[in-house]
Amino acid sequence: MMGATGLSVVIIIAVIVIMLVIIIIGGKDTLSWKFLTTFPQDGMTKGGIFPALYGTTLMVIIMSVAAVPFGAITALYLTEYARESSWIAKTVQFAVRTLSMVPSIIFGLFGLGFFIKFVGGGMDKVFSGGKLIWAQPNILWASLTMALLTLPVVIVSVEESIRAVPRDLRDASLALGATKWQTIRKVVLPGARSGILTGTILAVSRGAGEVAPILFTGAAYYLATLPHSLSDQFMSLGYHIYIMSTQSVNVDQTLPIQFATTLVLLLLTFTLNLVAVLIRSRLRRAH
Amino acid sequence: MKETKIKTRNLSLYYGSKMALNSITMDILQKQVTALIGPSGCGKSTYLRTLNRMNDLIPNVKITGEVLVDDFNIYDKNVDSVNLRKKVGMVFQKSNPFAKSIFENVAYGPRINGVHDRKKLTEIVEVSLQRAAIWDEVKDRLHDSALGLSGGQQQRLCIARTLAVDPEIILMDEPASALDPLSTSKIEELIFSLKENYTIIIVTHNMQQAARVSDYTAFFYLGELIEFGKTKKIFTIPEKKQTEDYITGRFG
Predict the structure, then answer these.
(1) Residue A168 contacts B where some CB pair is shorter than 8 Å
(2) I need a labelling partner for B211 at 20 to 30 A (CA). Which of A103, A157, A206, B162 fits?
């Protein structure tokens, strides 16, 4: 048994190390400040990844604006208002768990059907007399689709941190004549701040790396300009890696760019996860 | 003769189907210290928490009978428990300051009651801290975190925080049980000075403490009020055998 567990550990570590070493060696010479801040050139065989970096950043910001308040309110409801045994609380809990198990490509298809066809189509009919503006992939629909995908991460993380606020402090506030809502606003939420932050970071790190949900809902192969409206398409790091390695005019020539882009995406998500882990461990120690 | 501040009439409390208080009837006098004693699980803390309706927060609690504060039934449908708790303050067993500054801890109650004027707040904070006998120790660091205070100081800060809401009644749930002897004696002196202005009800496990600080003592056992009377009498010539056994340390 000891041998088997030891072997498993060695295999896992070896996979990570080999993966990292290959990516770092392949990408380190291409990675530079210029690579991060310039547009692709010559049919994307040269130049940088600025629009992809910009698009991913913008997408996770819009995604957070949608997912964090919505997730935090849901978590607040589950912890403070719903009785744990009530059917509605159980239903929400079940929905959150199910949502976190849905394959990401399904979110992409849902985004296409719901946001683009249904919501976007409806908006075009009502506001622009059928002119095509919102009923096509764009950064807003992609971000909202990604928000749905990351919602469970936010909910679970905020829920955990709200439950960690001691009963004592709520009692103290209520005994001073505070209402339940005053207690939540002034004692519970400030106490859960770091949990909300952790949830946001984990959601961002998940959203930055996912490709499937934005495949049909907003990611573009190549754009000569940055998106400047919510109805514009955008480039993203994950999707950029995919097209560079499968759709490029010359896959071998772009290999260094692929490695460097992968390295950027890895560093981004690793750093975000590391920060989340640090905040979380500080939170655990505080209680 | 002092006036009666709180009357409980046939007060019973159930957790689900389990009876925790059995038909308690007693009168608590104004500006006196009343001690509630008895072994763990006898219902004394539960009784204390019925007086500011903190038990409302626990699911499946059922209460019958009446609690009258100034002849007004606090379990009447029209009574807002939030307003009641402004009149009936509470100090807990474990000191529970907020993770805020000393000033903000005391200002919390006035603020939620709509006092926002800085000058007025400063005044309330100072008076409250003085009444809780902690002003001299903290006046130079009002804006430091309350969590940096010692256990005894934290408990006196919690008392100051309660006073800042200007209650008439203060409930204390074993306020000194987690403190060292010196801090305990400070709290006891404080209780003694507070009874000039407030009606105080204190739950304690410590017989000597009950004898030292209280004017009246109620002995609870298994959810029933066994004996209630002047502290001097309860501790010298109790009427019931159970009371005598408990205060002399034969059980509990």
Answers:
(1) yes
(2) B162
Which residues have C-beta within 8 Å of that of residue A98, sequence separation ≥ 6? none
Each residue of A67-78: pLDDT tens digit? 999 999 999 999
At residue A44, the pLDDT reads 81
How far CA B79 is from CA of A33, B74, B76, B132, in Å, comes to 67, 6, 6, 29
What φ, ψ does residue B96 adopt, rounded to 5°? -135, 60
Model pLDDT, residue B32: 96
Which chain A residue lies closest to B52 (C-alpha atoms)?
A: A175
Q: Per the domain annotation, does B38 fall within a domain?
A: yes
| CATH code: domain of residue B205 | 3.40.50.300
Residue B252 placed within a domain: no
CB nearest to A171's CB, from B82, B92, B161: B92
Range of the domain at B87: 4-247
User: Does the beta-carbon distance from B96 to A179 stay under 8 Å?
Assistant: no
The answer to whether the Cβ–Cβ distance between B85 and A175 falls below 8 Å is yes
Out of A177, A182, A187, closest to residue B165 by CB? A177
- What would the pLDDT profile of B106-161 be if each residue is shown by its tens digit? 999 999 999 999 999 999 999 999 999 999 999 999 999 999 999 999 999 999 99
Contact flag A176-B94 (C-beta cutoff 8 Å): no
Distances (CA, A) of B91 to B21, B82, B106: 21, 16, 13
A161 and B CB contact within 8 Å: no
Tell me if A175 and B99 make a contact (CB, 8 A cut-off): no
Q: How many structural domains comprise chain B? A: 1
Domains along the sequence of chain A with CATH: 49-286 (1.10.3720.10)
What's the rounded Cα separation, in Å, for the pair B105 and B83? 19
